[in-house]
């Protein structure tokens, strides 16, 4: 309950007034049949019109009050549940923002989306039902039982006899339903993950003409969800006929007993009518309580899944090592004997005892074959991952000693996947600095060679970007991402193969701008093309997770076989074009 307590406390009046008004509304449920019985047995039987009108007026007032109380109770129940769910959803989303890449990988994106949306909606629905019925139903149940015994204690015992059997049936249904709801929610995770992957990669699917394959794959996942949903929900469906059977059998038994008493004058027609109404109320209240418990079973499964997220301690966080606040000042970097595995304790390391020093302001190129550990290496600097062994230093301080926010504010990373968001070009650029002036945005775009194509659009910097930047070319997206990173005014700039989609002339223009405009900035550039890093102060050559060589282009072309192979293969490829 800890994750809900603060939000319940903030909206305490909803959680108080909702049940109070629903309880008041329920009180009228067992008063009305009693008055109605008196109208039949005393008013109608004796032809007393004034008695009928007077009690009818009382019934009208009670019904009107029940209407007001019911509306108010429902309003506060809905309001309280919605506000509590919104608060928990915000807490969960905020906590996910602290997750490292490995934390997100452990849950999967689709699962996290389901937990923030569907699972919290289940909690909201259950809370709303709880506020409306958990107090109302017992009041109606107890009140109807008391009134039944007041009318006839012998017939009232009939109801008490049926209650244990109905309670046992409800318990068995809930016990069976609980694991099925958990399985259903997990299958929703799988469905959401598949949908997200398919929609995101729609262009690839179409280019390979794999629509039928994706539809077949989705049909399998969708059918699995259907089966698990039916398996879970049919337990709730079973609850209705079980309750109806109990109501019908008890009603028949009551009518049979009461009918005999009416024949000998031991009970009046109005009392029998009231008794049947009370019987219906008792069993309806029991049925409602059973449904609350069934919803609670599904909500409990969702609650466990939400708790798994909120109770996860991020792998990377500000800890005891975090020292005084302060951004990176110079931008020097050192890797000391760094090793890293994505799958801990298994397989070969992605990085194997890497030791490198990079001076502040240097332009460093990183070259290597696919899977050599280039992207992993630069991900350790802003602590997107932490090394398994060794340490990474920035400005001579272990990166773990920096508060995460201060460290990442000082480092700009343009990852391999160029992510842009729906909105204008200007809005996307302001991710780098929301307070950037027009002059600062223009300068960053000029350095990234983006200003020209932006101004070619009719709307210029106010041009709307589609989701993911789908209405821009790959090279345009890359240049916008570089400009956005530059607006951070970082001390360290990291480009992870971020000019692969631009032509060689534009690539050269970007590098020249880096030399002249960003002279004091430490720049690390991962590249597939040697031409992108030939003029670097030094080039790191990675092979199977280790730095096999380090030097300038001229030094490496003379002494490093791996570098020579890459260079001559690219030169030969250029010659054939």
TrEMBL record:
- Report the principal subcellular site: membrane
The organism of origin for this protein: Candidatus Scatomonas pullistercoris
- Any one GO molecular function term: ABC-type oligopeptide transporter activity
**What is the name of the protein in this document?**
ABC transporter ATP-binding protein
The positions making up the signal sequence are none
Going by the entry's taxonomy, the superkingdom of the source organism is recorded as Bacteria
Q: Where in the cell is it found?
A: Cell membrane
Which keywords fit this entry according to its UniProt record?
ATP-binding, Cell membrane, Membrane, Nucleotide-binding, Transmembrane, Transmembrane helix, Transport
């Amino acid at each position: 309950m800890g994750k809900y307590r603060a939000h319940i406390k903030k909206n305490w009046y909803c959680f108080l007034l909702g049940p109070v008004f629903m309880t008041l509304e329920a009180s009228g449920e067992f008063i009305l049949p009693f008055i109605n019985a008196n109208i039949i047995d005393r008013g109608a039987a004796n032809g007393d019109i004034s008695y009928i009108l007077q009690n009818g007026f009382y019934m009208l007032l009670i019904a009107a009050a029940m209407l007001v109380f019911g509306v108010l109770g429902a309003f506060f129940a809905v309001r309280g549940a919605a506000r509590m769910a919104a608060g928990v959803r915000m807490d969960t989303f905020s906590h996910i923002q602290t997750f490292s890449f490995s934390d997100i990988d452990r849950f999967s994106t689709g699962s996290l989306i389901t937990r923030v949306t569907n699972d919290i909606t289940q909690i909201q629905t259950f809370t709303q039902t709880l506020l409306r019925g958990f107090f109302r139903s017992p009041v109606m149940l107890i009140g109807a039982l008391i009134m039944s015994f007041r009318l006839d204690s012998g017939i009232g015992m009939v109801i008490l006899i049926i209650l244990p059997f109905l309670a046992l049936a409800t318990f068995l249904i809930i016990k069976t339903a609980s694991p099925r709801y958990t399985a259903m929610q997990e299958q929703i995770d799988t469905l959401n993950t598949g949908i997200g992957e398919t929609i995101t990669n729609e262009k690839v699917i179409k280019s390979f003409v794999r629509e039928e394959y994706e539809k077949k794959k989705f049909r399998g996942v969708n059918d699995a969800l259907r089966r698990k949903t039916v398996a879970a929900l049919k337990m709730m469906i079973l609850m209705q006929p079980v309750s109806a059977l109990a109501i019908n059998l008890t009603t028949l038994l009551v009518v049979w007993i009461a009918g005999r008493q009416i024949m000998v004058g031991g009970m009046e027609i109005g009392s029998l009518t009231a008794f049947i109404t009370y019987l219906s109320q008792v069993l309806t209240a029991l049925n409602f309580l059973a449904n609350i418990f069934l919803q609670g079973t599904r909500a409990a499964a969702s609650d466990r899944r939400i708790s798994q997220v909120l109770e996860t301690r991020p792998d990377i966080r500000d800890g005891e090592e975090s020292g005084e606040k302060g951004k990176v000042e110079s931008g020097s970097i050192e890797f000391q004997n760094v090793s890293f595995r994505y799958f801990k304790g298994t397989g070969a390391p992605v990085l194997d005892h890497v030791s490198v020093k990079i001076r502040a302001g240097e332009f460093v190129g990183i070259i290597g074959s696919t899977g050599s550990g280039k992207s992993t290496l630069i991900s350790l600097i802003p602590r997107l991952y932490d090394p398994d062994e060794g340490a990474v230093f920035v400005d001579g301080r272990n990166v773990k000693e920096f508060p995460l926010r201060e460290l990442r504010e000082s480092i700009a990373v343009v990852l391999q996947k160029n992510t842009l968001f729906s909105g204008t070009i200007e809005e996307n650029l302001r991710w780098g600095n929301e307070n950037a002036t027009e002059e600062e945005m223009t300068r960053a775009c000029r350095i990234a060679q983006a200003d020209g194509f932006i101004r070619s659009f009719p709307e210029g910097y106010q041009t709307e970007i589609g989701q993911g930047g789908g209405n821009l070319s790959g090279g345009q997206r890359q240049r916008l991402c570089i400009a956005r990173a530059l607006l951070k005014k970082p001390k360290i700039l990291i480009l992870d193969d971020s000019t692969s989609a631009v032509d060689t002339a534009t690539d050269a223009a970007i590098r020249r701008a880096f030399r002249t405009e960003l002279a004091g900035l430490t720049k690390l550039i991962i590249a597939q093309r040697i031409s992108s890093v030939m003029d670097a102060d030094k080039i790191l050559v990675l092979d199977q997770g280790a730095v096999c060589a380090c030097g300038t282009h001229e030094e490496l072309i003379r002494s490093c076989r791996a570098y020579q192979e890459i260079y001559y293969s690219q030169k030969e490829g250029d010659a054939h074009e």
